[in-house]
């Protein structure tokens, strides 16, 4: 590299940060949508729990647990899929026409990968716990 030019590692670090931020936003949005849908589906069960005297914090714990299960599953599967696809693309570019280009290497940012796999479920569960109301609104039931 010539003197006076920006180093590759500085722009690479910014690119990694932008990719991580984008992945975090997309993953949390997907987790939030899936948790909201699962929570809507479990409203009758939660109403029954409330009717038999379960403490109000049970609903928040239930939502946080649902979000944790959804986000752990998504983070692990998404990370594994992304690593396999990324490595496949790099290795396919490395050898073209029978000539190996040593500039193409699989270089996984393990710290970022681990941070995402841990942070996404924690943030998803915390967000679900924070935004979920403790008590359900009273619903009128019709006998029929």
Give an account of the 3D structure:
With 144 residues, the chain is mostly helical. Helix content is 72%, strand content 3%. The chain is built from four helices and two strands, in the order αααββα. It has helices at 8-41, 43-51, 57-94, 110-131; strands at 95-96, 99-100. It has a two-stranded antiparallel ribbon with strand order 1-2. β1 and β2 form a beta hairpin. α1 (8-41) runs parallel beside α4 (110-131) and α3 (57-94) packs antiparallel against α4 (110-131). It is elongated and about 75 Å long. It starts with 7 loop residues before the first helix and ends in a 13-residue tail after the last helix. This is ABC3 transporter permease C-terminal domain-containing protein. The chain crosses the membrane at residues 17-38, 67-90, 110-131.
Low-confidence stretches: 1-8
Side by side, the strands of the main sheet go 1-2
Q: What structural category arises from helix and sheet content? A: mainly alpha
Principal-axis shape: elongated
Number of helices: 4
Strand content: under 5%
Structural Rg: 23 Å
- Overall mean pLDDT stands at 81
Q: Roughly what percent helix?
A: over 70%
The major pleated sheet works out as: 2 strands, antiparallel
Number of strands: 2
Order of helices and strands: HHHEEH
Element layout with pairings:
Layout: H1 8-41, H2 43-51, H3 57-94, E1 95-96, E2 99-100, H4 110-131
Antiparallel strand pairs: 1-2
Helix pairs in contact: 1-3, 1-4, 3-4
Brief descriptors of the model:
disordered N terminus, 2 strands, cell membrane, mainly alpha, two-stranded antiparallel sheet, ABC3 transporter permease C-terminal domain-containing protein
